[in-house]
Amino acid sequence: MNPIAETILESAPDLMLDLDRSVQGDLQTEEMLVNMGPQHPSTHGVLRVVLRTDGEMVLEAIPHIGYLHRCAEKIGENLQPYQYIPYTDRMDYLAGMNNNQAYSVAVERLCGIQVPPRGQAIRVIFAELNRIASHLVSLGTYGLDMGAFTPFLYCFREREMILDLFEAACGARLTYSYLTIGGAHDDLPEGWIDRCREFLDYFEPKIEDYNNLLSFNHIFVKRTSNVGIISLNDAIAWGLTGTCLRASGLRWDLRKVLPYDGYEKYDFDVPIARPGGTAEIPNGVVVGDCWSRYFLRVLEMTQSVRIIRQALDQLPAGDFRAAKCTSLKLPANEVYVEVESARGQLGFLVVGDGSAIPYRVKARGPSFCNLSILTHVCKNVLLADVPAIIGSIDVVMGEVDR
Amino acid sequence: MAPEEICKLLKDRLGNAIEDAVLEGGHPYARVAADRWPEVALFLRDDPRLGFNVLRCISTLDLLSDDKLACVYDLYHVPTDRPAELRTQTRLFAVRVTTDRNNSVIPSVAHVWPAADWHEREAFDLMGITFPGHPDLRRILCADDWVGHPLRKDYEFPLEYHGIPATTEFELTNPRH
Q1: Do A349 and B85 lie within an 8 Å CB cutoff?
Q2: In order of start, what are the domains of chain A with their CATH numbers?
Q3: Is residue A360 predicted with pLDDT exceeding 80?
Q4: What is this structure's pTM?
Q5: Spatial distance between the Cα atoms of A166 and B101, rounded to a whole number of angstroms
Q6: Which of B57, B115, B176 faces A237 most closely, judged by CB atoms?
């Protein structure tokens, strides 16, 4: 016992008794409801989580979503496909290219449009660049959640260069609408390929910096390893996709399983989580924990660089877009297509009825499905672990709420 | 396994629970009777020949001309033995369950695939289908006091919400669906 407490107890011997009684009798520890969000920096947007807490323990976490709901699906039922492309950007606003691509692939399958090889390669390049940009935001903000400010600045420095490349190609830096029905909206500008190669040469060694700054940082590993473990069975049952699924140990990537836009032509690996204690993975890491989900995004950036290099090397000449892709007549048929977006499998169900406007557009946001497991994971965890878990799932609320 | 074989397997085992199958087109599916859907779902998930352990998506359709609502369940199989092995193929299947527009009830499958929980809440919220057996069926995207179900084709756009005037472009855009 410390000397001050000893002195107090000497002067008032009944105090110990009082303390005992107050804990058991007068001062009851009650459960408390805490509102986390909707305006909270670590909920990555307007997500509200109602936490039922007992002291520092979170007994239950119930997410409330819908703050960004715009009923994008209803808008899709009122616009021609090429007019709807700009709305898909606004769903997952950190990976606009991937969203453009997903809707385009769905409409092309419905209408039987063949994308020319150059268009496909351009799509792959931009989708992978956007995957890197999206993962950089994820890494940086996850560091912020865990109290590491510096890596965020480095991640955004590199993301800025990707945005410059996007701006050179399509003029926009966030909502691109560049990949469209039939291919890409425009061809690559002059000198773009060399600029992109320069960027890749610059970027690849930087991944090591992120690892040194954040991934293997002792405090960061302690905060995120063995926290928020999702078993493979749970991940499958809750329909998790993308890095959240692969972090639970399953080697599953839609680019390999159901290739689209010519992904079968590229040689790349699908990294999965591995338990800690080896030279590459720190001690304490468990398959399916927050650190695994974080680190897979780092590993995926290397693979994306590999894919982009191959696509740049083999970039075919010819058309970048199939002819006549506006004012399409959508046949009375339906398709459901999923692509591997930065956050997981982004799906579109498009139903045509013979007119130029779809009868029904349904978007399956990967963040929506990944977030639905939150209540299951946040049972009996520490309050400080909740931001770690939410951040590791990497949600974009624009896509959750659509 | 091709969709034809899956449908045959289902018909052999579950008989008239499978109403018919639409195998042409870009999205082959089987039509399942609403009251027997959980039984079919369990068979689809647990039969070793099928093993549809992932519910990818529940999409809703408003079939206004038939006076029906429908849910489309997209499924696929993920092999869980040897998870570290790279997979390059899967089997896909879809199920469509229709219900009356005025009394739209489809039994919940949230106990079969927990992923259905939020998808069914979304279908309830935006299309107004109720799912008996769902653990917590309430609106998910719209506000709790929202009136109507926006994805229905005859939905009327509100012109006011708690004193907030709605868009004045409504007349201009004149949504047709």
Answers
A1: no
A2: 3-63 (no CATH), 72-401 (1.10.645.10)
A3: yes
A4: 0.87
A5: 46
A6: B115
Least confident of A355-359, B47-51, B136-140: B47-51
Residue of A299, A113, A102 lying closest to A207 (CA atoms)? A299
B113 part of contact set with chain A, CB < 8 Å:
yes
For residue A339, the cross-strand partners are A346
Counting residues of chain A whose pLDDT is more than 90, the rounded percentage is 43
CA distances from A238 to A61, A348, B57 (A): 16, 19, 11
Residue numbers in A near B54 (CB within 8 A): 236, 239
Which residues make Cβ contacts (< 8 Å) with residue B76, sequence separation at least 6? B52, B54, B56, B90, B91, B92, B93
Token pair 């305006």 in the structure block, residue? A39
Question: Which residue, among A399, A363, A401, has the nearest Cα to A93 in the 3D structure?
Answer: A399
Fold (CATH) for B3-141: Beta Polymerase; domain 2 (3.30.460)
pLDDT tens digits, one per residue of B13-27: 888 878 788 888 778
**A106 vs A78: CA distance, rounded Å:** 17
**Sequence ranges of the domains in chain B:** 3-141
Cβ-based contacts under 8 A for chains A and B: 116
With H, G, I as helix, E, B as strand and everything else as coil, classify residue A345.
Answer: strand
Residue A199 pLDDT exceeds 90: yes
Average pLDDT, chain B: 86
The residue type of A380 is N
What are the two backbone dihedrals, phi and then psi, of residue A348, each rounded to the nearest 5 degrees? Answer: -130, 130
Judge: A270–B126 Cβ closer than 8 Å, yes or no.
no
Phi, psi angles (nearest 5°) of residue A357 = -115, 135
**Exposed, middle or buried: residue B15 (CB in 10 Å: 0-12, 13-18, 19+)?**
exposed
